[in-house]
Please model this.
Amino acid sequence: RKEDYRLMINGMVEKPLVFTYADLERFPRENHVYFCECAANTGMEWAGAQLNGAQFTHGMIHNMEYTGVPLRTLLEEAGYDTAGKWVYVEGADASSNGRSIPMEKALDDVLVAFKANGEALRKEHGYPVRLVVPGWEGNMWIKWIRRIEVMDAPVESREETSKYTDTLADGISRKWTWEMDAKSVVTSPSPQAPITHGKGPLVITGLAWSGRGAITRVDVSRDGGKTWETARLAKPGEKRALTRFYLDVDWDGEEMFLQSRAMDETGYVQPTKTQLREVRGLNSIYHNNCIQTWWVRPNGEAENVEVS
Ligand SMILES: Nc1nc2c(c(=O)[nH]1)N[C@H]1C(S)=C(S)[C@@H](COP(=O)(O)O)O[C@H]1N2
Ligand SMILES: [Mo]
Model:
């Protein structure tokens, strides 16, 4: 219950504090729309096409308008020590899902959020209070937060060592891969959204996002990446939020190998699976942002295939 809620902030601070929910409601708040993508999204697809539907290959993501207090505000209230370079945040569940966050990010755009889309958070999303870490992997978005500790070093918790690290071809794992790279997927047509009309006008649509900023352009290929057409963005891309794209075509009723390729404001271009494997090898699970292919047959049904 929110009446029983307590959030502690301690460690390298002038005065350790305990906030009630009512206390949090009295700090100036901000509203922002952000996506939250699990780093394991698309993780099953490293070795080859596996799951037949965008919900299964790309569904571990949400996009909401969060309302919350900047973490910076609470750190300042407690008088954080500037020698504290890390903030460790833990939840009230058995796992605690503790994660170490660099102080620079904590002071930048992280929110201690208590509303989504104007309502109280649903319990699955962390009611009453969760962390919002824009653009960074979903695992860092601690739900049911109970404690924030300012530290001089990272904790190296389970969630940032044995999990959410990427084992490279030589067996060495990269870690601190927090930012989610640009990614996109065609949602229709797709295995779960077949074409139910014949040839002629067809709306190809999908979603694109980047943890590094706004989406600036999305290209769509109907021939497995040989040729590309630039899609229309539903509205200008917003920083670290989902952007819908459309390509309105005249379908000749022939098979298509549908792909989408996102670009963000840093100039980053979503890679092919081959490009990603060249850098990361085959041992990875997390952070698979490669270009997805749907094989659309003349009868309108679509299947997950690999073109790389
Ligand atoms: N306390 C706590 N927070 C957590 C988790 C958890 O198990 N416990 N799971 C994390 C993971 S792995 C992800 S991807 C996101 C998912 O957030 P959502 O369910 O609101 O989409 O929450 C994160 N926050
Ligand atoms: Mo996750």
